[in-house]
Amino acid sequence: MQYFRYQEQELWCEEVPVSELAQEFGTPLYVYSKNQIVDNFRAVEAPLTGTDHTVCYALKANSNPAILTLLAQEGAGADVVSAGELYLALKAGFAPGRIAFAGVGKREDEIEYALNSSIFVFNAESTQELQLISLVAARLGKKARIGLRINPDIDAQSHPYITTGLKENKFGISAGEAMAVFQYAAGLPGIEVVGIHTHIGSQIVKVEPFVEAAGFVAGLVAKLREAGIILQHIDFGGGIGVQYSNALFHEGLPHENPGAIPPPPGDFVRAVLPTLKETGCSLWLEPGRSIVADAGVLLTTVLYTKENGLKKFVIVDGGMNDLLRPALYDAYHQIVPVKITTYEHDKVDVVGPICETGDFFARDRMLAKVKRNDHLAIMTTGAYGYVNTSNYNARPRPAEILVNGEKVRVIRERQTLDQLF
Ligand code: LLP
């Protein structure tokens, strides 16, 4: 079900007209649908019923404490990449035995914190990291459970900044070295090798790269077994793509280019499950975006419109400090009026107030005609939205709201000017 929808001419989130939220809490404002998050999580988990599994939510996508608490209550595990994320996961109630610690550059103090917290597994990415984890574990009189992140050299066919499974990427241990590094790890005193980890990239919109990666992982698990290294655990990473264009339809909105339409999240899981299950290993997944992306919108207010002879600009009160994805990746987000008051359209650039040409949300985009004080919703911004906010231009970070039916909760206050000094 879609929890953001038009009811006649007005955008609603669950049982609340979004314009009321903009009025009451001001803009820029992140608004999330609780039930969309829960539905998304269950859609990934459903095909795994009957399989020994954990769906670890990747905190990096959105680490608002209320959202983390919600997912912990749903029974999610956690994929963390820093002491900060581990701290948030533990505080939100994720069971330590369902936490994986990933990342190419773990610090010694972070390793110690994770060991003392009894997390389930470190996904290790280099021999030097293995040595350090072993040393710290031995010093604490513990054994660290390890999964080795192997880079399968598979093209995820995504944006180059978020493709991680190619030879030239910094992530993991190359496939050719895998056997030797597994053998090396197995001999280290502070380490117990339990599994293998892959994550080939993010915003993947086809199942084929996943199927290829599953074949690679299953093949390697079999080879390792022949060599006497018995793995019990596969962490297959995240990366399930979502639909960014055509997030919403209304007859009054301009036609959107179709863009990439990924299959539903459960289809990705179903496509790899038989191959991975055959290994006899428990299966962990680390979805981030597919759990929260379409559960969030960023509301902004039109400050001014202007024309320079060549272009028309819609200047809004949100900027690249509030949502970085368009500036960083030229990412596409549908932008819609919160109230549809006209069926006339204009080709415009939607830009923010920040002193950078890269401060845009859309360029040469057909948009419903807008005027000062109209509210616009930037769609599908629940993932990698708030987490990438900054105080650039000394702009306070926006507030965050969680809607559940008719209930509205402020889950993060807007920063104040006082907090900037
Ligand atoms: N596991 C690992 C090891 C990862 O590096 C990532 C994402 C995930 C899981 C979660 O992937 P997801 O299911 O969300 O695709 N800022 C970028 C995305 C960066 C993704 C980084 N790693 C964006 O806004 O598109």
Features:
2 domains, TIM Barrel, eight-stranded parallel β-barrel, 421 residues, binds ligand LLP, 26% helix, elongated, 11 helices, nine-stranded mixed sheet, 26% strand, Lyase, Ornithine Decarboxylase, Chain A, domain 1, alpha/beta
Describe the structure.
The structure is a single chain. This protein is of the alpha/beta class and 421 residues long. It has 2 domains: 34-289, TIM Barrel (Alpha-Beta Barrel); 294-414, Lyase, Ornithine Decarboxylase, Chain A, domain 1 (Beta Barrel), CATH 2.40.37. Helix content is 26%, strand content 26%. The protein contains 11 helices and 21 strands. Strands 4, 14, 15, 16, 17, 18, 19, 20 and 21 form a 9-stranded mixed beta sheet that branches. The protein has an 8-stranded parallel barrel with strand order 5-6-7-8-9-11-12-13, surrounded by 4 helices. The model has no long low-confidence stretch (mean pLDDT 96).
